[in-house]
Design brief:
- By secondary structure, this protein is mainly α.
- The chain has one domain.
- The protein has 4 helices and no strands.
- It is flat, with a radius of gyration of 16 Å.
Length: 115
C-alpha cells in the first residue's frame, strides 16, 4: 500500500509539474515538487517512526516528539524557500494535497479489501 502511494504520488506530481512548467508557471511547478516531496518524506518518516516504536512502552511520547520535530523542520524549510521566492504557496499546498488525497484513497481501498 505504501509503495503504491509513493508511485502514484510521484507520477501525479511529475505530470502536474510538467503541465505547470509548460504553462510557464515555474514557481508553482517548484512548489508542487517541494510540497509533494516534503509530504512523501513526512510519510516515510511517519512509517519509519511507527514501525520502529512498536512494542515500546514510551512510544506515544516519542512519536509525539518526533512528529513535532518533523513539523518544525518542514515549516522551516518552507519558510526559507518562500522567503527566497523560489516556490509558490499555492503550489506547495497543491503538492501536499496530492499526496494526502492518495493516502486517503489508498486507505479506503485497503479498508474495502478487508471487508
Amino acid at each position: 500500500m505504501i509503495k503504491r502511494i509513493y508511485r502514484n504520488s510521484a507520477l501525479l506530481l511529475i505530470v502536474s509539474t510538467a503541465v505547470c512548467a509548460i504553462m510557464g508557471k515555474y514557481r508553482i511547478s517548484a512548489g508542487l515538487l517541494v510540497g509533494g516531496a516534503l509530504s512523501l518524506a513526512n510519510l516515510k518518516a511517519l512509517v519509519w517512526g511507527v514501525t520502529g516504536l512498536m512494542g515500546d512502552q514510551k512510544a506515544a511520547g516519542k512519536l509525539i516528539f518526533f512528529s513535532g520535530l518533523r513539523f518544525m523542520i518542514i515549516l522551516m524549510a518552507l519558510l526559507v524557500l518562500l522567503k527566497l521566492g523560489l516556490i509558490n504557496l499555492i503550489g506547495v499546498v497543491s503538492g501536499m494535497t496530492v499526496v494526502f488525497t492518495l493516502i486517503i484513497f489508498e486507505g479506503l481501498r485497503e479498508a474495502r479489501e478487508l471487508n
